[in-house]
Amino acid sequence: MEISFIERKRNEMNDFDPNTTVGRRGLILKILDDRGQVNVHELSEQFNVSEVTIRNDLTQLEHKNLLIRARGGAIKTDKVNLEIKLSDKKIQHSKEKEAIGKRAARLIEDGDTIVLDSGTTTKEVANHLLRFKNLTVITNALNIAAPLAEMEHINIIMPGGVMRKKSLSLVGSIGQNNLKNFFSDKLFIGADGIDAQLGISTPHIEEAALNRTMLKMAKKVILVADSSKFKKRSLAIIGQLTDIDVIVTDRGLAEDDYEKLINAGIEVIIAD
Length: 272
Fold this sequence. Notes:
This protein is an alpha/beta fold and 272 residues long. 38% of the residues lie in helices and 22% in strands. The protein has a seven-stranded parallel β-sheet with strand order 6-5-4-9-12-14-15, sandwiched between helices. Strands 1-3-2 form a three-stranded antiparallel β-sheet. Strand 4, helix 7 (120-126) and strand 5 (135-139) form a beta-alpha-beta unit. The two termini are 28 Å apart.
């Protein structure tokens, strides 16, 4: 017997427990990302909870700007200036991000100086640095620097700046000017939008400015992004696809996007 769409999504997301509130909401977001819309009645039946519970889920997710409520359900939001809190981003595509971070970390060699941009996917790269004996990490992300500080053989450089609470990152002219004093072997950068014509982008103007400085200070630029970020545009442009050397993503990458990346001379790595 053919399994339902939601059951297939449950099989794809073993790290989400649909019997918990957090797990159910994370799965709803995944379904919404794939379908573009969700229906209260269908979700109620598939999750075996009341429609009142589903409506409450959708309301809470709307308050976090993760969707837009519509009659009988909700639709996906693609506002270019929409910025999602770090804590909410963590529940989106978490399985894919973990695989991407693990695979991207294999591109690092002992003795490297690397830059880790702020973001949930770059945080997954940082989670796989324990094996290194000699590494210098430059980062503007407080949530990346703090756990790395406990690793004896990793030297940490923070450029300074004004803290943004949504992303736990440091931005502004202080950080930009300080970054200009450094050079790195590899930059690991994330993006909220990846578009063949526009390039890579983010909702926050100051983050984009800092990221553009990062692009200039690295020998190799590695974009780490799950496939949901493709064919999307955000408010502030970070750079063009030609600024990227390597992209690490997941198997959800569309064939036409893959071909565009290859034609642009970018190495594409699919994380398993």
